[in-house]
Amino acid sequence: MQTVVLLFMMGILDLSISQRYSQFQWLSHLRGRRQYATWQAEELDCPLECDCPSAYPTAMYCHSRNLQHIPVVPSHIKYVYLQRNHITSIQDGVFDNATNLVWVVLFHNQLSSDKIGKNVFSKLKNLDRLFLDHNELTRVPPNLPNSITDLRLGHNRISKILSKSFEGMANLTTLHLQANVIEEVGGVFKGLKSLTMLDMRKNKLRKIPDNLPERLQQLYLEFNNIESVPADFLTMHPKLQFVRLAHNKLTDKGLPSNVFNISTLVELDLSFNKLEKIPVVSRNLENLYLQANKIKEFSLGSFCSTVDMTNFSKLKMLRLDANEISAKDIPAEAAYCLRRVAFIDV
Ligand SMILES: *[C@@H]1O[C@H](CO)[C@@H](O)[C@H](O)[C@H]1NC(C)=O
Ligand SMILES: *[C@@H]1O[C@H](CO)[C@@H](O)[C@H](O)[C@H]1NC(C)=O
Ligand SMILES: *[C@@H]1O[C@H](CO)[C@@H](O)[C@H](O)[C@H]1NC(C)=O
Ligand SMILES: *[C@@H]1O[C@H](CO)[C@@H](O)[C@H](O)[C@H]1NC(C)=O
Fold this sequence. Notes:
Layout: H1 2-13, H2 16-20, H3 23-36, E1 59-61, E2 79-81, E3 103-105, E4 129-131, E5 150-152, E6 174-176, E7 197-199, E8 218-220, E9 242-244, E10 267-269, E11 287-289, E12 317-319, H4 334-337
Parallel strand pairs: 1-2, 2-3, 3-4, 4-5, 5-6, 6-7, 7-8, 8-9, 9-10, 10-11, 11-12
């Protein structure tokens, strides 16, 4: 695990190393390595454009070097870093010998869906993470291996998700689809038995996706066009803990009563909507964001149906600023019910 973390830091986080090379320095570095390579058996099949340090014999570093094509990946490589290049296509076959690949990192390139071969990823039976964010994809790549647990497709131009896109991906735990132009998803997430996190911020959704997987804990839907929440939304998804719906078009009419009064919920973000009332929430809720709505009254009953010494809300964070109420609208009994809230932002 430690090695994996180190690889991650070298390959992704520590971009400063590669950025320090000017193009010219880069060339002399290449030449130096070439002479040296005969000493290093592993490096022999390392493509010239990349680095395969002997300290990390299963990693191949090819990031930030103006590449337009994916170099041939040798069969012993498990982790390939290709981010921040100008790669526009992936032809069928480039990964054919690299069936041990576990991570493929391709974010910040210029990949378009029409230029990705139909079966480029399908033979990678060990693929665990596939990072394709910040590209120009208009579709989810077809035939993704079922072994993937972390799939990143954010910041692309995906508008539609075909019904079979995620079929059989029973090990997928996190799915990033933020900053695309998706209007609707139908039931595409249904079979994702292991999915715990779904990020669909900054899309064009008009409703909450149907058939969300049962294990889902974190649902991020900020910056969409959602107007309402289905009545059974949280009772159907009993594991949800974090629900973020800020910057949508929610009104009181779109929220069935008690829809958020669910004991598993820890955080609920409804800020920057058009709510006029504080929705009823469970006593177990810890963070509630309601700033920048049109709330006109402070209803203590939304937090505690009865107020006594033993029955109180677990709320720690309550934001109500930029609404149409002020501190004098908060009744004195709020101090009993909301005893864990340090101060209420109004
Ligand atoms: C795959 O490996 C074989 C045997 O080492 C080699 O002949 C072939 O060129 C390789 N193919 C690719 C696409 O690298
Ligand atoms: C899914 O994960 C389980 C447990 O880690 C593993 O045994 C199984 O092979 C994985 N499935 C695929 C298709 O990789
Ligand atoms: C919220 O749900 C709890 C538990 O189901 C229930 O006791 C409580 O009365 C509900 N709150 C309101 C205001 O309906
Ligand atoms: C808290 O209030 C509910 C009704 O809202 C009641 O059923 C329950 O017994 C109370 N719990 C305690 C510990 O007083």
